[in-house]
Amino acid sequence: MMSLAEVSPEERIELADVPDDDARTRLLRLGFLDGRVECHQQIHNGPVVLRRRGSEVALGRALAREIRVTRSTDTPK
Amino acid sequence: MTATQQPNRRWRPSDAPETIALVGAPNVGKSVLFGSIADEYADVSNYPGTTVETTAATVGSARIIDTPGVHGISSFSEAERITRDIVLGADAVVNVVDATQLDRDLFLTLQLLDMGVPTVVALNMMDEAEADGIEVDVDALETALGVPVVPTVAVTDTGVPALRRQLPEATAPATTPIAEHYDALPDDIKASRAEKTLLLEGDDPTVRRVEADELVADGGASPLANAACREQVYRERRTRVRALTETVERVGDTERALTDRVGDTLMRPLTGIPIAAGLLGLIFYVIGVLVAQRLVGFTEGVLFAQYYNPAIEAAVTRLLPGVVWTEPIEFLLINDNLGLLTISVQYVVGVLLPLVVAFYLVIGTLEDAGVLPRLAVLTDRGLSRIGLNGRAIVPLIVGVGCVTMAVITTRMVGSRRERLISTALLGLAIPCSAQIGVIMGLLAGLGLVWWAGYLLVLLAVLGVVGVFLDRTLPGEQDALIEQLPRVRVPRPQNIVRKTYTRTVAFLKEAAPLFAGTALVVSALDYVGVLDVIVRGLRPVTALLGLPAAFGQILVLGLIRRDFAAAGMTDIALSAPQTFVGLVVITLFVPCILTMTMTLNERDARSALLIWVGSWAAAFGVGGLVAALLGVVA
User: Fold this and answer.
1) Does B262 touch chain A (CB under 8 A)?
2) ipTM of predicted complex
3) Beta-carbon separation of B482 and A57 below 8 A
4) Most exposed among A24, A57, B389, B617, judged by the fewest C-beta atoms under 10 Å?
5) Could B381 and A47 be called an inter-chain contact, meaning their C-beta atoms sit closer than 8 Å?
6) Domains plus CATH for chain B?
7) Domain A2-71 maps to which CATH number in 3.40.30.10, 3.40.50.2300, 3.40.50.1010, 2.30.30.90?
8) d(CA A68, nearest CA chain B) in Å
């Protein structure tokens, strides 16, 4: 499984494993663990911006490296 | 209405009227709605024991409290803890939901209902939802939630009368799906429905409170901690939110708004860095030049120096009989360094007030436009090298305008550790605009090479101190998790209201603190301690290769940084000496106002460490530069 830091922009993914407890809970609450999300921007050596239903969240690089993702096969919701 | 019984109602005395809390995510228009729903502004204050301002007002016979924006009721941050406390103490809440972000915001709504808090939902930003092609079936949402839902557009007051009428109808369903989990909690537990919900979600303050009541006798693992199943509860709630959103919301196809694309360009380094640099220049021009120099120059130099101070001095001299025992009193009240009625008032009203207002206007505009979180994304990469995350960019930018103000904004920066690092960097290596004017003048006389050298020394100190603190302070760097609000054209009404609220809260807190500091320093001055300090500094000035007169400049610098810079213009120094002097006064202790705010925002120990640290940094680096330049004989 690849990490969130390796995803290319515009790609649709699912966050499969977020090891950090706080980060997981906060992402869960915002709906980012509900399924498909879009990797909106990969800032070189900087944060990753995820997008879902018009809502955006930025995750620091170090955190993004820990997060395991799968490429989404879901139909769009 | 069934008011849930809460033991920790510290926000509400027993004879007070009913309390309604206004709760919602950040940037959903809460404060605008607050302004239009309230009868009048009652009071602005910092929440007890914290530095987060809250606003309260009356609406009919009830009291309404605005709360910091949150995505859920829990204790992840200071803002969340405050909102949680206010909600637990309130009789009802108005839950402000962004109609364009139903799927995100209904989590908080369902959580409030799970807690059994009587609620009215204000479905705000209906105009933006329409523009986005989002249709919300308000009746279906009301039926599904079982509480009143009122569509509103806060900025135009649309739906506000209806919302006011619905306030007494605030309610919560008798039971919600979370009740299935209550069995996991001990049977005999003395906790309200709200607390039971928070216990299941493993909310630490609630667990501690209930445990203290239960007096758990066996030393083993607490049954409450075992019962917590936050993730499961959250997941189930998210499932309900998804199902709900799918039934009440229809999303049409629309182009991405222009403002969204503006937001993207701000975060990409290639476009974002020039834009940020431009913004920085503009902020520096507005706060540092227009306000800190021109406007303050007028208030200080004309209003106070020519009119207010002479009038007060004359009045005091006339009122006090010119006898021996009144002399110290007269000194405390009207001395030229920090007199309580003259210079102190001048600092607070003539210097701080214009800066504070200007600063809050600028920050409010950036906040309202949704720019700040994107700047944080842009700078996260660089700042993570010195133990900070992107959020720390705000204090550092503001610091160039006014360090005192910047210390206040460090409250926006995540954890305690990061607040300490950013405050230390501000106190040490960021010169304030008041000082920069004079410093730039002196350096301009020396030439461009010295100017570049000066910047280089400061950046080096910033980097070294940042890395040092990052390595030595306990704890881990906080990862950036930033929910990015929409980019929009700022709404002046909103900005003015926030600026007013914050300025009042600031003055209420800073004025008494500053008055106290002024009295203490004046007293020290009167008994001659300040003179002793100047004499004590002689070996140090010698170490720097500077004349003894520089000691006086340092003493001035203890009070205000720009005084020190201004003092430098009065003594004859060679180019390298001037350079060493400027480096020293930049790194030297923050001004009294900054220290007062540091004490207020952090704690005495951190403030003292920063103060002592800046002595060490100023003379360490100054001595080193002096040795390299061959200033010391």
Assistant:
1) no
2) 0.92
3) yes
4) A24
5) yes
6) 19-169 (3.40.50.300), 177-251 (no CATH), 257-633 (no CATH)
7) 2.30.30.90
8) 16
Q: Shortest CB distance from A49 goes to which of B230, B234, B377?
A: B377
pLDDT score of B238: 95
Angle (CA) B244 B247 B248, round 5°: 85
Measured over the CA atoms of residue B152, residue B154, residue B156 and residue B157, the dihedral's sign is positive
Structure tokens at B607: 């403030």
Known binding positions of B for GTP: 24-31, 49-53, 66-69, 124-127
Mutate to test the interface with A, among B103, B203, B259, B383 (most CBs of A within 10 A): B103
The tens digit of pLDDT for each residue in B250-285 reads 987 766 677 788 888 988 889 998 998 888 778 777
Please, which residues 470-529 of chain B have a Cβ atom closer than 8 Å to chain A?
A: 477, 479-484
User: What distances in angstroms separate CA A32 from CA B108, B246, B335, B548, B564, one per listed residue?
Assistant: 15, 16, 61, 63, 53
The rounded distance, in Å, linking the Cα atoms of B174 and B113 is: 9
Q: B4: pLDDT confidence band, cut at 50, 70 and 90?
A: very low
Percent share of chain B, pLDDT over 70: 89
Q: For residue B536, give the amino acid letter.
A: G
| Residue B21: DSSP 8-state | E
Mean pLDDT of the B415-441 span: 78
Question: pLDDT tens for residues B50-90?
Answer: 556 678 888 888 889 989 889 999 888 778 888 999 999 99
Contacts of B413 in chain A (CB under 8 A): none
Nearest residue of chain A to residue B256 (CA atoms): A54
Domain ranges of chain A: 2-71
The pLDDT assigned to B433 comes to 65
Chain B CB contacts of A20 under 8 Å are 479
